[in-house]
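Bench notes, afternoon.
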Amino acid sequence: MKKNHKETRWHKLDNTANIFPVIASENLSNVYRISVTLKEDIKPELLQEALDTVLPWFEVFNVRLRRGIFWYYFETNRHRPVVELESNYPCRYIDPYNNYKFLFRVSYYQKRINLEVFHVLTDGMGAITFLKELTYQYLRLCEPKFRDCVEAKPSRECSLNIEDSYLKYYKKSDAKGYKTKKAYQLKGKFMPPTVMGVVHGYIEIPSLKAACKIYDVSINQYLVAQLLWSIYTEYLNKQICKEPICINIPMNLRKIFESSTTKNFFAVLLAEFESDREDYTFEEILEKVTNNLKKQMTKEHLQGLISYNVSNEKRFYVRAVPLFIKNIAIKYIYHNSSKAFTTTITNLGSISVLDEFQDYIDKFHLVLSVSKKQSLKCSVCSYKDELVFTFASVLTDMNLAKTFFRNLALQGIRVSIESNGVYNEEM
C-alpha cells in the first residue's frame, strides 16, 4: 500500500477482480443488486447523509479504477457519490464517467434502498456489510431513539478488512482449473435491450426446512436440485440431451478459511446433471446433486481452486505481459469458459442485523445481472423466517420460474410471488 501527502491510496485488485474490467460492457455489466426494504418510505436527504458518513470507512468502495502498464489498480476517489431515485431496470452497467467515477450506485424507491455493485469491488458478502452499515446510519438519522445510543462510526459487527485472501491462502500446487465442456443453454425469445424481468418468490423457511428434512439435505442442495429438476422437465421435457445442465454456484470462502475481508473471496462450485435417460425422478437428481456438491465443498478442493487461480497471476511471464495483451487473453479465456454453464444460482444465506434495528427492517433482496451465455440467473437470500428466491432474466417468458415455484408448492412449501411488472401473465 502506498500513499502520498494528500492521503490518496493505491492498491491492487484481488485475484478474482482482474477479469471484470476486461469483460464488462453495456451487455455484460457484471453488476449485482442487494437491497433492503424498511418499514417506512425512504427520506433521500437522510440517505445521502448516511452515505456520506459511511463511504469514508470503506476503502474497498471509495475508489476509482485506473489502468496501469501491467494491471488495473484502484485509486482513492475524491468525488462524492449521489443518491438517486430508482428509475430503471436493476443491474445496469455502471459507467464510471457518468457516476463520479464510482463503481457502485445507491438508489431508493418507496421503502427500499438499493446498492448496486460492479463485481470488481467485492462479492455479495462484502456488499451486504456496506449496505447494513448504510442502513444503520440512515436509521440513526431517522429515528430519535438511535441518536444517543448509535454513533456515527462502524458498528460492532462491521469488518473493514481489505486483505486479498486469495493471496493469503494460496499454496503452490498442481491443482487443475475449471472444466470448459459445453453446457446446455436456455433458449427463447429475448426482450428489448436494457429490459430485464425479475420475479421474487417468497418462501416460508419452516415449510422449506420440513421438505429438506425429509431428504436429509441442506436448503442450498435442495434448491439447486429443484432448479435442475425444473430445467430437466420444462426445457428438456425429460428427453435425452448430449449437453449437460450445469449450474454455477459461487461459494463464500470466509468461514472455511477464517477471513473477514471486504474484497472478493469466493470459489465456484458446479452442479452438473447429464440427461442420459427419460425417466429421472426428482429424488435421483437430488441425490446426484448432494453427493457432487459434498465432494466439492471440502477444504482441500477449495484450496486447490484458490491455488489454481492465483498461480496464473504469480507466473513471472504473466506479470511481465503488458495489460493490453493480458486483456486479449482474458477475454478469450472468459468467453471460452462461459459456455460451461447453463445458469447461476448464488445464495447469500441468512442475513442478520443488529438486534436494535430488526423491527425497522422488513426484508432483503439479491438480483444478479445476466450474461451472454446465461440469459437467466437465480439468487437467494433470507431474513428471519422468509427466504427470497429470485429469477432475473432477459427471456420473454418466465416458464422456468413458474415450473420451479409450482414444484415447491407441490412439495408442501408455501410460496408467494412478486414481479417487476415485465411479465403480464399470471405466475
